[in-house]
Amino acid sequence: MNNILPHITLEIGKAPRHSIIWLHGLGADGEDFVPVAEEMNLPVAVRYIFPHAPEQPVTINGGFVMRAWYDIVASDIAAQQDSAGIRAAQAAIEALIAQEIQRGIATENIYLAGFSQGGAIALHTGLRHPSRLGGIIALSCYLPLAETLAHEASPASRHIPIFMAHGRNDPIVSYARGKVSAEALRTQGYQLEWHEYAMPHSVCMEEVRDVETWLTRQLKKGRPKDQASSTATVESSSTLR
Questions:
Q1: 201 in catalytic set
Q2: Which tens digits make up the pLDDT trace of 33-59?
Q3: Residue 116 among the catalytic residues
Q4: Which of 9, 74, 177, 201 has CB atoms 3.0–4.6 Å from 172's, for a disulfide?
């Protein structure tokens, strides 16, 4: 498939039927959350996709070129949003979703996860995808282009499970911004589970365990009977694409 972002593929277990596309934050790369995936013990085999965001100038950082899903113009991230950049990132993630579907993964077995900018794109894309995905994990982030969601949201995604989490001491994406985003989604009827932690703009082990618990619950809902009684052997392989 053309125009696929370069990415790391990590398969844990044999013949995975579930995929998790995990998006890193501003200035990081796909390697950032590989250790988190390796830390989690899930009940089914999973293929993780960790894409690398394109390199581009970021206005708030003096135009310095870094990996970014979209431009950030000011510290008030919701005041002047890069709509074109957000939608370009959405298209790039849609291409990765299409790739997983082409590999035989059912749409409802594909999850989007992300941290900071990556979490914002996971929310933006997952809520607009024409078919319902398995779920969205949005960490230390906010809902971008919130004013467009009501008329752009996919009816199929109205019942998508969402896990949102935030640090109460976050100086980058404020706790208040994350909380307001969560409440806005709840007001629109989305199924959202909220977690918060005494941490800055980062990830903590308690959060990883909570993500693991939430994912386990979602994955078991659609677990085939022939897998339910079997004990999976965990095998890991990591390849760069």
A1: yes
A2: 999 999 999 999 999 999 999 999 999
A3: yes
A4: 201
